[in-house]
Design goal:
The complex is a heterodimer of chains A (84) and B (170).
Chain A: E1 2-5, H1 8-11, E2 18-23, E3 35-37, E4 49-54, H2 56-63, E5 75-78
Parallel strand pairs in A: 2-4
Antiparallel strand pairs in A: 1-2, 1-5, 3-4
Chain B: H1 3-27, H2 35-56, H3 61-64, H4 71-85, H5 90-109, E1 128-130, E2 133-135, H6 151-167
Antiparallel strand pairs in B: 1-2
Helix pairs in contact in B: 1-2, 1-6, 2-4, 2-6, 4-5, 4-6
The chains are: A alpha+beta (84), B mainly alpha (170).
Chain lengths: 84, 170
Amino acid sequence: MIRFTQSVEVEVRRGEPIKLLEVNINTVPSGIMPIQFGPIPASGITYPTTIIEVTPAEYEKIKRNELPLPPGWVNEEPIPKPSE
Amino acid sequence: MSIADDWADGFALQADADFRAWELYQKYPEACAEVCHKLLFLQMACEKLCKAHRIRAGADPNELIKTHRVVAKNLPLVIREEMIRHGQDSRAISNRMYLVRHLSQEIELLNPAVRDDGERPDNCEYPWEIGGKIFSPLVWSFNPLRLCFEPGGVTFLKLLRCALDNNLPH
């Protein structure tokens, strides 16, 4: 899982979603398909989230700039797995 | 084009529009009143997609128009077809199907007309009574559908979008 951010001015805006790229060996290769989730206050999730799920092969293409991410997906920060 | 084809196209187009409403509510949460309203669009999209799929497979549109019990049985078939289309092997498909079947059943139960023999009166439209107490969709947690946030849930939503696109009239 990799979190993407852009400028601080944008990221602090209310309603700016958390942007997550998930590399999943079990997903299907369907290109860049952002899935948006609104906040679910009842679950303690008070912010919107956008998840792009890709296969490892698609992730390699992203790294080679052959598969562009949406605008604003600029700075990447890997999120360690819970066991790491 | 037969009248059945027209019915299938009509359901597919409406399913796509319903799902776009769900996507827009997800993208612009400030425009959305409540979670139950978002889920209503998800449920309607899945029901119509399944009806389009069944009609394209030869089912009689007149038998499908009035029923709401099509999602739990047919959505897993639609999603499975989509996984095959994307080249998933049988093991990967098998690994996914438990969650797909579970989510499909929960989505069907969002319809107030589907009550699972009274066991599941919870739905995303109307209040219901359990043990003399009235519950409202506005405050219901719809717990099982939180699985959409899990990795398999995201894949499910991706495949659903792909299936909706593939069922649109060419």
